[in-house]
Design brief:
about 260 residues; alpha+beta; Deoxyribonuclease I, Chain A; six-stranded mixed beta sheet; about 25% strand; globular; double-stranded DNA 3'-5' DNA exonuclease activity
Length: about 260
């Protein structure tokens, strides 16, 4: 059972670059997308209401900003599109879908940069991390097997970006941001990719300036985290850097289908 996550950097733009063909050929049961940057009615019909997928979108109130979407081969047993905290919910950053005992949380974590690249949004970002953490911990305590996937906008360890020393004061690699994700790991959450790959040089985002992607000068900021009770069902994890259409690459996991039972 394949689950994929991709920050598409604008779903309408990505659709013009082959997103629909990628989705059809993905082999996935569940696909979460972030930074949709469109309301559902603004999307092409074959994405808004595709014949072969159950699609659900959570847009931001602000036009052309943020937003998440989920495509599923089977209808979820239940869905949630809110954290219940207005200052987060207006930005359309999280959705939750349950498939039997498997809960999938698709989230677009904020960037800490303000309008002037001044790290002024870091407190908001950290509060969002904590709110999502509380949500998924409740699901975990209820006995659900939980996947939290999306663009986390933070590289946790030096191994996760090409130039850690140059980015110590950059949002996405600030100590307080990294500490917040380390708190998840200390609580038992699994970085699915690191369950299978311990080496460096594996990134999911590259700056669009210059030739960063061609030179693989990137950051690994897109994750699929798994609750500890999911470990027996993990069969693989991967990044698809060859897939174009966004400044991010899709990331994915392979699960035993029994995870839903």
């Amino acid at each position: 059972m394949r689950v994929l996550s991709w920050n598409v950097n604008g779903l309408r733009a990505s659709a013009k670059k082959g997103f629909r063909a990628w989705l059809s050929n993905s082999g996935a049961e569940i696909v979460g997308v972030q930074e949709v940057r469109a309301r559902p009615e603004q999307l092409p019909e074959d994405l808004r209401d595709p014949d072969d997928w159950h699609a659900h979108f959570v847009p931001a109130e602000r036009p052309g900003y943020a937003g998440v979407g989920l495509f599923a081969a089977r209808a979820p047993d239940s869905q949630l599109a809110t954290l219940g905290i207005p200052r987060f919910d207006v930005e359309g950053r999280v959705q939750l879908a349950r498939f039997g005992r498997l809960t999938v949380v698709n989230a677009y974590f904020p960037n800490g940069n303000g309008r002037d690249r001044d790290n002024s949004r870091v407190p908001y970002k950290l509060d969002f991390y904590r709110a999502v953490f509380e949500l998924v911990q409740r699901r975990r305590r209820a006995g659900q097997r939980v996947l939290v996937m999306g663009d986390f906008n933070t590289a946790v360890r030096e191994l996760d970006l090409a130039r850690p020393k140059q980015n110590k004061n950059t949002s996405g690699f600030l100590k307080e941001e990294r500490d917040e994700l380390e708190r998840w790991f200390a609580a038992g959450w699994l970085d699915s990719f690191r369950e299978f790959e311990g080496g460096g040089g594996h990134y999911s985002w590259w700056s669009q300036r210059g030739t960063a992607r061609a030179r693989n000068v990137g950051w690994r900021i897109d994750y699929i985290l798994a609750s500890p009770n999911l470990r027996p069902f993990l069969r693989g994890a991967f990044i698809q850097p060859e897939v174009q259409g966004s400044d991010h690459a899709p990331v994915g996991v392979e699960l035993d289908p029994a995870v839903c039972e």
